[in-house]
Every structure is written in C-alpha cells, then in structure tokens.
C-alpha cells in the first residue's frame, strides 16, 4: 500500500510541475487522474483464478444449508453412487453420440444416469449465452455446478461440451474436488480433418466460408487435455468400444461394481 501511495503522489507532483503549461481541459483531465488514483488506493485488490478459486456470491446474508445425511449414508440408503464424466472435444468428435450411448447402457443395467448435452442446455438454462470467450466460460461454470448437484444426488452424469479452454475444465474439476465428488475428464479425440469430413451440422463448412465466426478449431482455439482420465480416439475406435471404455473406467475407479456393469440389459 505504501508503494502504491508513493507512486500515486509522484504522478500527482509531476502533473503539478507542468500544470502551468497545460490548457484548462488538460488540467481537468490531470485532476481526474489524481482523484482516480486516490480511489484505487482505497479499493481492495481481488484476483481470482478460474481454476483455483471463485468470487464470493453477490447475494448477502446467505448460509449453506447442510443435509441431514452424510454422503456415505446417502449412497448406502439409495444404492446410487454418482460421478461425472466430462466429454470434451471438437465439434464432430462424437461427444454427444458416445454420451448418449453410455447413458443408454447404464440405464439398461438399472443404474441412474443422465446426459447433459451442450446444445440441449443452450435451449434452456444457458439460452442467454453466446460463444464469446466470456460466455463460453460462464456456460461451463453453470453446467459444472449443475453436474455437481446431479452427482451429489447419486446420478451418473455425462456432460458433452466442447469446453475448449483448459482453464475452464480445470475450474470444473476444482468444483468437484472441493465437493469430494468423482470427476473424469474424457477426451474425445479426433484429427481436425476427420471432424471436418464428418461435419454433422454443417458448421465447419460455414466457418470455412466465413459465415460463422469464433468456431472452435477454425478461428478459435481448442486446448486439448494433457492428462485426461479417459482417452477416446473416435477415428480409431467404434462408438461401442468408446462407450465400453467409459464404463470400464467407472468400474476401475470403484464408482460401479463389476457386477452392475456386467448385468444383462433390461428389455426396452
């Protein structure tokens, strides 16, 4: 604080020394600068890292209401242990397809599962968000909080979002770690040229033609995970193989029992 104060005073003295050569308008501007520097000295400095911390709620006078059940008691009484598998990858990589298939396989085995798909969520909860960097970050923040609640309730939650920025995925992971809930990053890997050839929504074609700006992989970056819990190269493995890999990982991590994973699917 002392350094900031000395620096501000030095700036103000410099302005005073040349004030005789300044116009009236310039003097007013200089005065405003000094006043603003004084204002800054009185403000607390707040720095938040999206991956490691988050700002406090805007609402005041709110308190967290604890459950009457411990997490282990909830699992024992309901028979449901939740987890989130976070599918990330380029558009056309197969996130939604694999997520839907995993959901189907789990439910057919009598397990509680639900898929949160990027496009679907933007029809409702996140319909007010676009695709700017800020909106993408808020999109991931909201869905990570929703997925956390689902997981805490004992639901096997499957999120399918491009989620292109590493810092946003790290922030989602931190949300789960702080709540002591299982989180698995599943990188749905595919070369860009293969994704472009698939182009199920025709978005790559629009982006290449300049009709769609800020499209991930074309004029907006995709930061590939470096250490995902699950790697799903969809240009090498079938949809079935990828879905089975996800379920195998849940068994390996102790989220699912081998017996539950191997149970015969119930008839539709």
Descriptive account of the structure:
The protein is built from 11 helices and 5 strands, in the order αααβαβααβαβααβαα. The chain has about 270 residues and is α/β, with parallel strands linked by helices. It has a 5-stranded parallel sheet, sandwiched between helices. Helix 1 runs antiparallel to helix 2 (about 25-40), helix 4 (about 95-110) packs across helix 10 (about 240-250) and helix 6 (about 135-150) runs parallel beside helix 7 (about 165-180). The longest helix is centred in the middle third of the chain and has 20 residues, at about 135-150.
Indicate the radius of gyration in whole angstroms. Answer: 25 Å
Shape: globular
* Average pLDDT over all residues: 84
Q: How many DSSP-defined strands? A: 5
Total helical segments: 11
- Compressed to H and E, one letter per element, the order equals HHHEHEHHEHEHHEHH
- Please summarize the sheet with the most strands: 5 strands, parallel
Unreliable parts? 18-22, 30-50
Percent helix, as a range, is 40-55%
